[in-house]
């Protein structure tokens, strides 16, 4: 069957949550992720913790891009630490699925976009560590679990010069949303920080090698699905750049 390289296949990671009157496990993903990927011309497929690792490997083997999405805390055991008291919502099955997907994606060289938890998972997957609770680690710093409505920005961030992120977004000054209590600490191998909040918390990371690897701590998909098709919007530009990178990968892998 011919692949449509105009619509590259994008694998999106999900979580599981109880559904229905019997509370049976169901797949959980905010639909805004799908809209944000398909708006620029991607075709989405879901990766879930219910998939076995052989299925994860096979799905990533045919995908042209991977999105590591937001959600629960990454298990601190994955980076050799005991859990802080604020770490209450870990999902070992999801960690295992996403780390397997990330490993497969990096081996194939497909573009990776990592969002919020996804950025933290990317960092851990490459040997980095996390600040488990920003409020206790940076007392007197900024609140990173915003009190503004879900579709509003919360605080400024600055993008580093001469980074891929700066090139993609077309600006170095951002006003972003914030829905996290953890953050990148020690960077993983082959990664560099690309953006920071005004209190020094890392808000963006990217790969230093040849592959397209970008992580952002904010949620660019929130409100993205409803926003007008404005190429100047930094969040929209990020998704367009990612899908275009996946499209280019698809073209050379046919």
In short:
The chain is 29% helix and 23% strand. By secondary structure, it is of the alpha/beta class. The strands form three sheets. It has a nine-stranded mixed β-sheet with strand order 4-1-5-6-13-12-11-8-9, sandwiched between helices. The protein has a two-stranded antiparallel sheet with strand order 2-3. A two-stranded antiparallel sheet has the order 7-10.
Strand and helix layout:
Layout lengths: L8 E5 L1 E5 L4 E5 L2 H8 L4 E5 L5 H10 L2 E4 L23 H17 L3 E4 L1 H9 L4 E2 L2 H4 L17 E5 L4 H6 L3 E4 L6 E2 L6 E7 L4 E6 L5 E4 L17 H20 L1
Parallel strand pairs: 1-4, 1-5, 5-6, 6-13
Antiparallel strand pairs: 2-3, 7-10, 8-9, 8-11, 11-12, 12-13
Helix pairs in contact: 2-3
What labels would you give this structure?
alpha/beta; single chain; 23% strand; Rossmann fold; 254 residues
Termini separation = 11 Å
What oligomerization state is this entry in?
single chain
User: How does the helix and strand content classify structurally?
Assistant: alpha/beta
Overall geometric form: globular
Proportion of strand residues: 15-25%
For the record, the CATH class is Alpha Beta
Using the 3D structure, state the CATH architecture: 3-Layer(aba) Sandwich
* Spatial ordering of strands, largest sheet: 4-1-5-6-13-12-11-8-9
| Fourth-tier CATH superfamily name | Class I glutamine amidotransferase (GATase) domain
């Amino acid at each position: 069957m011919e692949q449509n390289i105009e619509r590259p296949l994008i694998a999106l990671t999900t979580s599981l949550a109880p559904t229905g009157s019997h509370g049976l496990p169901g797949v959980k993903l905010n639909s805004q992720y799908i809209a944000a990927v398909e708006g620029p011309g991607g075709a989405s497929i879901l990766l879930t913790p219910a998939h076995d690792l052989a299925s994860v490997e096979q799905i990533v083997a045919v995908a042209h891009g991977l999105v590591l999405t937001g959600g629960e805390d990454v298990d601190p055991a994955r980076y050799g630490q005991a859990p802080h008291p604020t770490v209450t919502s870990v999902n070992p099955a999801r960690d295992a699925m996403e780390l397997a997907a990330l490993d497969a994606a990096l081996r194939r060289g497909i573009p990776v976009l990592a969002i919020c938890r996804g950025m933290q998972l990317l960092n851990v997957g490459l040997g980095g560590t996390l600040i488990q609770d920003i409020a206790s680690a940076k007392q007197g710093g900024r609140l990173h679990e915003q009190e503004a409505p879900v579709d509003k920005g919360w605080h400024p961030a600055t993008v580093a010069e001469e980074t891929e992120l700066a090139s993609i977004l077309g600006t170095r000054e951002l006003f972003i949303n914030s829905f996290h209590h953890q953050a990148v600490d020690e960077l993983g191998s082959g990664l560099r920080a690309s953006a920071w909040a005004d209190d020094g918390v890392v808000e963006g990371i990217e790969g230093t090698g040849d592959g397209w690897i970008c992580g952002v701590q904010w949620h660019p998909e929130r409100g993205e699905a409803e926003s007008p098709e404005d190429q100047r919007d930094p969040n929209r530009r990020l998704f367009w750049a990612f899908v275009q990178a996946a499209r280019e990968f698809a073209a050379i892998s046919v």
